[in-house]
Design a protein that fits this description.
Mean pLDDT: 95
Bound molecules: flavin mononucleotide
Distance between the termini: 21 Å
Strand order of the largest sheet: 1-9-8-6-5-4-3-2
Number of domains: 2
CATH topology of the largest domain: TIM Barrel
């Protein structure tokens, strides 16, 4: 008999869709969600997702091949919709027969969903509003992730608990909805599953796994931090709408405010167009995260982390983290 029958029962549709034992997605995290972490999550029964981020098609090609060498379990690839080489990246996924592509960062450009489905992969989409979710699910999205503002990295304005109440009663009967943002323990997982989610997605909780290549300094910063240290960035110029990013407070958080002022001034002077200005902001984040997560400069780099960071207290193998989550969920459901 299965170890976690109640939780697995509620995850049934999600696990079937993913092809994994548990419907626990490892949220793609730029620089961190590479072959080691992704394969470890999939090998532990979850579903790892490679963060393509700003990778070139060649790099993604190598990362998928590298991941395949470490696991024979299914895993996915997360592509950012505004990547200038999105079409080529989709082709790389097709070449490797990737089973699931997650489209993040905005409305998928015309033809991208079709191009993914053409090689037989499932498409997972993000939607910040119910209206957009319905539209994306009508136009080819096979599953949806709703992500609340408790999450690490780029965030929307609404909390996970409210999104769950808005989306799940309406969509969960006919659609596959995964809940992300602020999940640090299995009890929360159980709650969203009971509300109709078919699975969950976690990022912050996996950053400090033994298999994660995140720099030891980055991991230490996570161990030290509490929920209130993971703050959302503030927009300084009304004309430059920046998507807020949740990260641990440090010098880098202040530097981002300065960067926005600098880009806003370039806009004032007509030195850059709006699209270019926003791209500069995005590049800033990718560079800043690398500086902290890979190079270990935790003062000046970006320490993207969700509010669940307070529940990350030590380095553990992914298999143990996944097992804890499942056991906590199972115990919670058992008490009902
Ligand atoms: C360090 C870090 C980097 C992230 N990078 C990305 C990314 O490149 N693309 C993306 O779609 N989401 C990114 N996310 C969000 C995660 O995929 C995931 O949805 C989120 O972490 C879930 O919320 P949680 O952190 O509260 O578990 C990132 C999150 C963190 C903590």
């Amino acid at each position: 008999m299965s170890k976690y029958p109640k939780t697995k029962g509620l995850m049934g549709r999600g696990s079937e869709f993913l092809g994994s034992e548990y419907a626990i997605l490892g949220g793609a995290m730029s620089w961190v969600s590479e072959r080691n972490l992704v394969s470890a999550i999939s090998n532990a029964g979850g579903f790892g997702v490679i963060a393509c981020g700003a990778m070139t098609p060649d790099l993604l090609d190598a990362e998928i091949a590298g991941t395949k060498a470490l696991t024979d379990k299914p895993f996915g690839v997360n592509l950012i919709t505004m990547h200038p080489q999105l079409v080529d990246l989709i082709a790389v996924c097709g070449k490797h027969g990737v089973g699931h592509v997650v489209l993040a960062g905005g409305i998928p450009p015309k033809g991208s969903v079709e191009a993914i489905k053409a090689f037989g992969a499932k498409v997972i989409v993000f939607a910040p509003t119910l209206a957009l979710a319905k539209k994306l699910l009508r136009s080819g999205g096979d599953a949806l992730v709703i992500e609340g503002m408790e999450a690490g990295g780029h965030i929307g304005p609404v909390s996970t608990s409210v999104l769950a109440q808005e989306f799940l009663p309406v969509l969960s009967e006919d659609h596959l909805v995964f809940v992300a943002g602020g999940i640090g323990r299995g009890e929360a997982m159980a709650g969203y599953l009971e509300m109709g989610a078919v699975g969950v997605q976690l990022g912050t909780r996996f950053v400090c796994a033994s298999e994660s290549i995140a720099h030891p300094n980055f991991k230490k910063a996570f161990f030290r931090a509490g929920a209130r240290d993971a703050v959302a960035s503030v927009q300084v110029d009304a004309r430059l709408p920046v998507i807020p990013v949740r990260a641990l407070k440090n010098k880098g958080t202040e530097a981002f405010t300065a960067k926005q002022r600098e880009v806003a001034q370039l806009l004032d002077e007509g030195a850059v167009e709006m699209a270019e200005a926003q791209l500069q902001i995005e590049h800033y984040w990718a560079g800043a995260l690398r500086r902290a997560a890979i190079d270990g400069d935790i003062e000046n780099g970006s320490l993207m982390a969700g509010q669940s960071v307070g529940m990350v207290t030590k380095e553990e193998p992914i298999a143990e983290i996944v097992d804890h989550l499942m056991a906590e969920s199972e115990a919670a459901l058992g008490r009902r």
